[in-house]
Amino acid sequence: EVQLVESGGGLVQSGGSLRLSCAASGFIFRKYWMNWVRQAPGKGLEWVANIKEDGSESYYVDSVKGRFTISRDNTKNSLDLQMNSLRVEDTAVYYCAGGNSPDRWNWFDPWGQGTLVTVSS
Amino acid sequence: DIVMTQSPDSLAVSLGERATINCKSSQSVLYSSNNKNYLAWYQQKPGQPPKLLIYWASTRESGVPDRFSGSGSGTEFTLTISSLQAEDVAVYYCQQYYNIPLTFGGGTKVEIK
Which of A64, A60, A56 is nearest to A17 (CA)? Predict the structure, then answer.
């Protein structure tokens, strides 16, 4: 069974840090671009970051550049998101999602269940 | 950035009737070298992650009922639910994967009339 399980969410004060993790199973993790996508409470979806299959390239939405770092460990089938200098507007459910497509940029499938990050002022 | 604009924001459709959701991109997501539109559609039910329905604008994901169909090219796209079922109540999103940053439409909420 294909599965992505996120962990590490919680309540943090503005300016603080949090590290999210995503454990993958049931598919060949090292062959997928991987992504973080977030959803603020009651709002739509926002792509946050992605990382190439071998970890050699990563890209970010402008609002998190310089604050968030995506990384992966293909030996452990795991994906991380280090979030520093957190802001109230980073409050959201963070989803781990596989990047699916034979091309460079992807649609998202599979998805994890998400982990909630709440940043308080 | 490619801005994705969905319409309407919400719609109420009777069971068995057709639901149509529109998505416009601020620039073309048609890649001329392969004639493919880099556009996907997702369904999200309350408390659940999004579920992929369609990619390449019109290719249905395995296991997705054939009442869901995608059409369009360039900058204008449509998701059609041909005969709405109760389990189709959800928010639907379009997403472009033509360029970074990957962007989503604002979502369309589908309800039963």
Answer: A64
